[in-house]
Amino acid sequence: MNRLTFKPLGRLLTELVVLLAIYLLGCQLAAWLAWPIPGGVVGLGLLLVAFASGLVQPATLQLGAGVLMAEMLLFFIPALMSLLDYGGLVRNEGWRILLVIGCSTLAVMLVTAFTVELVCRWRLRHEV
């Protein structure tokens, strides 16, 4: 076997391990500090700080993040399958659930957009 064949696989596994470690660190911080914020969100905040400080370059984790994004549907299949068990709830309260999902999705999109805008402006000011 060629040594070059294992290089992309090794890089992918390394990036996935780093992303998992950041996630687990976020979970531990949320638990230790008893924050009412999910560990995944804390981990994303840690990753944002690492990117903004220049400690980690986004291109460094691009391959691993791309694989996770490409397979994101697999993370939602268990949640979708559980709808079969709660059909009555969805029929009776479905519009409220959709309203909450829509509002929370909009809130996430707005916060993400403003965060990206702030980071880009901060970076432009500090690069000059």
Strands, helices and their partners?
Layout: H1 3-32, H2 39-53, H3 62-70, H4 72-82, H5 87-127
Main location: membrane
Subcellular location: Cell membrane
Protein name: Holin-like protein
Count all strands and give the number.
0
- Mean pLDDT comes to 87
| Euclidean distance between termini CA atoms | 48 Å
Radius of gyration: 19 Å
Question: What spatial form do the alpha-carbon principal axes imply?
Answer: globular
Q: Any low-confidence stretches, pLDDT <50, length ≥5?
A: none
Question: Strand fraction band?
Answer: under 5%
The description of the largest β-sheet is: none
Secondary structure: helix percent: over 70%
Q: Supply the number of helical segments.
A: 5
- Structural category is mainly alpha
Order of helices and strands: HHHHH
Count of the domains = 2
Tell me about this structure.
Helix content is 83%, strand content 0%. The mean pLDDT is 87. It is mainly α and 128 residues long. It folds into two domains: 1-70, no CATH class; 81-128. It has helices at 3-32, 39-53, 62-70, 72-82, 87-127.
Task: Supply the key terms.
128 residues; mainly alpha
Structure in a nutshell:
With 128 residues, the protein is mainly α.
